[in-house]
Amino acid sequence: MDYDYLVFIGRFEPFHNGHAAVARAALGRARKLIFLVGCADAPRTIRNPWTVAEREIMARAALEDVDDRLLFRPLRDHLYNEPHWLADVQRAVAEVVHVDGGGADARIGLIGQDKDASSYYLREFPQWPLQDVQRTETLSATELRRYLFEAADEHGNGAMRLLQANVPAPVFEMLDAFRRNTPAYTQLVEEYRFIRDYRAGWADAPYPPTFVTADAVVVHSGHVLLVRRRAAPGKGLWALPGGFVQQDESILDSCLRELREETRLKLPLPVLRGSLRGQHVFDHPDRSQRGRTITHAFHFDFPSGELPRVRGGDDAEKARWFPVAEALDMGPRLFEDHLHILEFVLGRS
In angstroms, what CA-CA distances link 110 with 30, 35, 107, 270? Predict the structure, then answer.
């Protein structure tokens, strides 16, 4: 073997034939394969329908004959702090190797497909030689997810056949069971249809649209104000109060309007403006499934005092103050990149 460990980083949403081919190529060169499964602690969305545990089960089932040579660790995203993500990768590999009994002299490499600009991260670890594998002919995970959600339509059998042809047999059985027996599938299909129709409404625009939104990070006496979304996308998830900027208002005015509409916060506007501590733009290209959406987050801070009464309104089913520590641990329950915005604004990252 050329290596003691090869590291395979991915989301595996779902684990398909291409992933299986890379894994088997890795096990031809390394004693063990470390899977770092991305988007850990993310909510279920049409981009990330499965938990880390579910994706690990898929991979182990597809590679059952070599299961004893597979090692798994969750990997969180840090959309606005890439050095933190790089450190997490390094830390996770070191911990896996240590727990497995590997020493400081363990031979470690990285394996993956350096296919396009999205694979830049493979060059971010010069301490690990890169094993660039040939691409296996298979549909992309994005296409496979689309077929899974389209299987809910009247003529969904063709979609399921395409899905079956591109994933290992045990994975297909799991996906079929997920489709038939999991309540989460129904909500994901609803979200998929909403996003599909939303994008279709802009299909005839002369240029791909860029949307501008504003979000409020209101911190009061060690608590942060969140709202629970009433409808798709992200129905039932907690989010920062906010929304789209209207044509006749500034971005700050939009933020204040959405804050008051969604939370019924009774603080006077001059008090809110006086509590503004900072603002930042969050523009990760994949932050919203609706399309290219750039948000401006405004940080309002009230160091002490009794928490003002709030209640849900407009697009928000409910409004509530959460202790900051609790909010920062709500990853799977938070909408889009709002955990990353909170971490950035509140300084945990």
Answer: 10, 10, 11, 54
Helix (H) or strand (E) holding 181: helix 169-181
Q: What is the mean pLDDT of residues 266-275?
A: 94
Structural domain spans, the chain? 3-185, 210-346
Predicted pLDDT at 134 = 76
Report the chain's terminal Cα–Cα distance, integer Å. Answer: 38
Contacts 24+ apart (CB under 8 A), 279-286: 279/252, 280/344, 280/345, 282/79, 282/80, 282/337, 282/340, 282/341, 282/344, 284/79, 284/80, 284/337, 286/47
Strands 292-302 and 210-220: parallel
Letter for the amino acid at 348? R
CB neighbour list of residue 89: distance below 8 Å, 6 or more residues apart: 7, 9, 36, 75, 125
pLDDT at site 314: 73
Assess whether pLDDT exceeds 70 at residue 349: no
User: What is the band of 135 on the pLDDT scale with cuts at 50, 70, 90?
Assistant: low
Lowest mean pLDDT among 108-122, 139-153, 314-328: 108-122
In words, the CATH class of domain 3-185 is: alpha beta
Residue 348 binned pLDDT confidence (cut-offs 50, 70, 90): low
Rounded CA separation 123/280 (Å): 29
Report the distance separating Cα 200 and Cα 104, nearest Å. Answer: 54
- 210-346 sits in which CATH class? alpha beta
122, 112 in Cβ contact below 8 A? yes
Position 116 pLDDT exceeds 90 = no
Q: Give the Cα separation of 84 and 158 in Å (integer).
A: 43
